[in-house]
Amino acid sequence: MNQGHLEFCASPQWRQAIEETILPEALRGVALGDDVLEIGPGPGMTTDVLRTMADRLTAVEFDPELADALARRMAGTNVQVVGGDATHMEFPDDRFTGAASFHMLHHIPTDGAQDLVFAELARVLRSGGTLVAADGVENEGVRLFHADDIYNPIDPETLDRRLSRAGFVSVDVRVYDLGWICTAIASM
After folding, report:
1. C-alpha span between 135 and 178 (Å, rounded)
2. Whole-angstrom Cα distance, residue 130 to residue 137?
3. Which of 181, 176, 12, 167 has the alpha carbon at shortest distance from 100?
4. Which of 58, 68, 113, 169 has CA 20 to 30 A from 40's CA?
5. In what side-by-side order are the strands of the sheet with 79-83?
6. Predicted TM-score (pTM) of this structure
7. Are strands 96-102 and 56-61 parallel, antiparallel or unpaired?
8. pLDDT tens track for 14-56
9. What is the DSSP string of 77-97?
10. What is the structure's pLDDT at 64?
C-alpha cells in the first residue's frame, strides 16, 4: 500500500467505518463458526472485531511488516497471524469453518491471482463453511487514492461466476453504499 493508504487504514475514521458500517452490514446473519480465516488484515482493524466472534482466528497477511506488527499486537489472544500469500496457503484442506476478507481483494494485482485466492479459500474451508467478503467498486476517486499502489477492483457483476468456478455455491452478491458484499458457501 502507498503511505497515505496505509495511514488511512490505521485511522480512527476507518475503524469507525469498519465497526459501524462495513462489518455490521457484511456479517448480518452470517455464522463463521469457531475456526475462522481472515485474508489480508492489514493493521488489524477487522481482526479486532472478528476475533470476538470465533474461538480461533487465523489472519494471513502478505506484507511482512504488517504481519509482524499485528502478530505482536495479537500476542496472547485467540489470533494467530501468519505471514504469507493467500494464493498458496499452507493449511490443510477443510481446516476452517469460515473465512473473511474486507476491502483487501482489490490489492491483488491480477484477476487470475484473485481467482487463485478464491480457489484456496474454497479448498481450506470445510464443506458448508461460509466466506464473507466486502470491497469497493471501481471509481476514479478510489483509483487516485491508490496512486503508486495496486488497484484491481472486482466487478460485482462477475463475482458470482468467479466464486462458483472456485468451488462455492449459494453465492450472494449485493451492492451497497461502500461497494459490494458477498457471502458464499464452500461446496458440499
Report:
1. 8
2. 22
3. 181
4. 169
5. 79-83, 56-61, 35-39, 96-102, 125-135, 179-186, 168-176
6. 0.94
7. unpaired
8. 889 999 999 999 999 999 999 999 999 999 999 999 999 999 9
9. SSEEEEES-TTS--PPTT-EE
10. 97
